[in-house]
Amino acid sequence: MKAGEQLPSSALLYHGRRKTPVSIFSSFLLPPTRSPPHSSKPQVIRGARACTVCRAAKMKCVGAENGQTQCQRCKRANVECVFEKHRRGRKPGSKLSEASKMLRRLEKDLNSAKLKTQPADPGMPTSYPASESHNIPQDVIYGTLPQSDSAYSSASHFPPPDLPPLNLPARPSAPPSTAPPSTAYPTSATSSHTMSVVDDDDDDPDKSDTHLFPAKLIKQTQRNSFFRIILNTEETPVSTSSPPNRGSSYTPPQSKPPPAKPTIPDPISSGLITEADASLLFDALYLRLNPFINIFDPQLHTHTYVRNRCPLLFSTLIMAAAKFFKPEVFKQCQKLANDLAFRAFQESWKSVEVVQAFACLTYWREPEDNRTWTYIGYACRMAVELGLNRYTKSSQTETTLQKLERRNRERTYLILFVHDRSLSTQTGRHWMLPENDELIENSGVWHRHAVDDKIRPEDVIIAAFVELRCIAAVTTDVFSASKGSGANDINYEVVLRNCNAQLNKWAENWQAEMGEANGESFHFAFLKFFRLYVRVFLNYFGIASGTSQHHSVQAHSVCYCSAKESLQIVIVDFTKLSMLRYGQETITVMTAYAAIILLKVIC
């Protein structure tokens, strides 16, 4: 057969059970081979490594390296030696994925940019063929982007079609950075994809639940022009600051406890405050801030004890107190606490105080800070790793300090459990800590095992909130399971009636426990506020999850009355006690949610 004639039908090769012309076989591309150094002809860049005949036979194509002559196999068979570009097949009608479309745009822009830059810079490295873009290093494809957290922000995670000009010249070695380690700490502006209570949920796969969960409902309401004017929201530009360059002198961090105190700065050693200031700030912390979080015991957590145990926790508490009582040093303390948090993560500090510090970094966060979900998740995992979820009975040989520290570990885990379930309720995301731990199962009487047999109101609140979150979880699971299965055999009125009865029983039980602990008016109002919030959430969740036939006047009435009462507690009780401004971020979310539900029920 002469060159250029088509193969007869008898020459079709079999592939599997189908007869397929040899010209449609394809394989993965390999890097091009170099031309012989003594060849005077320029190297031919082809879209395929082997001819169609050799590709069909799955044999090496020998003899046509210069692209001008037939290969040995085609010459023996006296057939045309054709090099065809690979056509990676797709099923007819199938669509390219977003990643494939993005890669094709990148290849197109890359090739056009190379053609523009080659005449201007003859010393550039050899260009990559268009058909071999899968071998291009990722840092060349995406340009010389800094390897910082900003690379994962919404602006660069999936580049838009109008890509910026690519920096294609060879990357010079970066000079050693002289910036301090603190500059590598990712601020909330750069971590735009980290999750928090009210962070952006544009990439949430389940957008049908936007009207159910508080954080999503508030986020959706903020998009309304009326609320946007009231809330005065602003767009935060994404920072592109890069971390310091790690030269040859960089030593990888190792998992170890914090080194000696002199090597770790704190607000006192940094000259921001004095010992006397620290003592006063801790007094203010216990008087105004701790009643909202209930995590610290003044018998144990003196400023001296905390400073000696963990500079990170000490700096975090000083930062929180300085925000309200010493604002002139707040920014410096905030930077120091953030730097130490980054260092604690980098060097794997692990202790109950580190767990508490990461939790406290989320309580009084700045509005643009969206690391709540990340920090609480990290604290939960560290708590489990440290065994804080173990329930240990007191022994006669324990000293007072040992009892206080044991209670401190248990208290920390219980609060993390409450915070974890609270975030799950607010955002609709799954919780991390299970409720079948022995410590959680014994939380109903945990507050009674005090060190000096005197029940603390703060411990009563913690034990009460654990049970409250479990009640909320059971009811939410019923509604979620009904929605997921599409079943309509659930009587929503019966479920809500049982739920409200459980909440009323909870209120009676824990109000009595708080009275036995000699709780103050703030503690009673605090318990009632959280119960009303859960009541509003579950009743509205039930209304929104069911169909129109399940909407009952009773559920609407419960939502209206409970939302109104919760707002009255915020406006009257917390304000009268001068406590409203000191509430953590959760109080703000719950208040906003109650206001939105009240408007929805009325309108």
UniProtKB/TrEMBL annotation:
<dbReference type="Pfam" id="PF00172">
    <property type="entry name" value="Zn_clus"/>
</dbReference>
<keyword id="KW-0238">DNA-binding</keyword>
<keyword id="KW-0539">Nucleus</keyword>
<dbReference type="GO" id="GO:0005634">
    <property type="term" value="C:nucleus"/>
</dbReference>
<feature type="compositionally biased region" description="Polar residues">
    <location>
        <begin position="235"/>
        <end position="250"/>
    </location>
</feature>
<dbReference type="GO" id="GO:0000976">
    <property type="term" value="F:transcription cis-regulatory region binding"/>
</dbReference>
<keyword id="KW-0479">Metal-binding</keyword>
<feature type="compositionally biased region" description="Low complexity">
    <location>
        <begin position="180"/>
        <end position="194"/>
    </location>
</feature>
<dbReference type="InterPro" id="IPR007219">
    <property type="entry name" value="XnlR_reg_dom"/>
</dbReference>
<feature type="compositionally biased region" description="Pro residues">
    <location>
        <begin position="158"/>
        <end position="179"/>
    </location>
</feature>
<feature type="region of interest" description="Disordered">
    <location>
        <begin position="110"/>
        <end position="215"/>
    </location>
</feature>
<dbReference type="InterPro" id="IPR036864">
    <property type="entry name" value="Zn2-C6_fun-type_DNA-bd_sf"/>
</dbReference>
<dbReference type="GO" id="GO:0006351">
    <property type="term" value="P:DNA-templated transcription"/>
</dbReference>
<feature type="compositionally biased region" description="Polar residues">
    <location>
        <begin position="145"/>
        <end position="156"/>
    </location>
</feature>
<protein>
    <recommendedName>
        <fullName>Zn(2)-C6 fungal-type domain-containing protein</fullName>
    </recommendedName>
</protein>
<feature type="region of interest" description="Disordered">
    <location>
        <begin position="235"/>
        <end position="268"/>
    </location>
</feature>
<keyword id="KW-0805">Transcription regulation</keyword>
<dbReference type="GO" id="GO:0008270">
    <property type="term" value="F:zinc ion binding"/>
</dbReference>
<feature type="compositionally biased region" description="Pro residues">
    <location>
        <begin position="254"/>
        <end position="265"/>
    </location>
</feature>
<feature type="domain" description="Zn(2)-C6 fungal-type">
    <location>
        <begin position="50"/>
        <end position="83"/>
    </location>
</feature>
<dbReference type="InterPro" id="IPR051089">
    <property type="entry name" value="prtT"/>
</dbReference>
<dbReference type="InterPro" id="IPR001138">
    <property type="entry name" value="Zn2Cys6_DnaBD"/>
</dbReference>
<dbReference type="Pfam" id="PF04082">
    <property type="entry name" value="Fungal_trans"/>
</dbReference>
<keyword id="KW-0804">Transcription</keyword>
<dbReference type="GO" id="GO:0000981">
    <property type="term" value="F:DNA-binding transcription factor activity, RNA polymerase II-specific"/>
</dbReference>
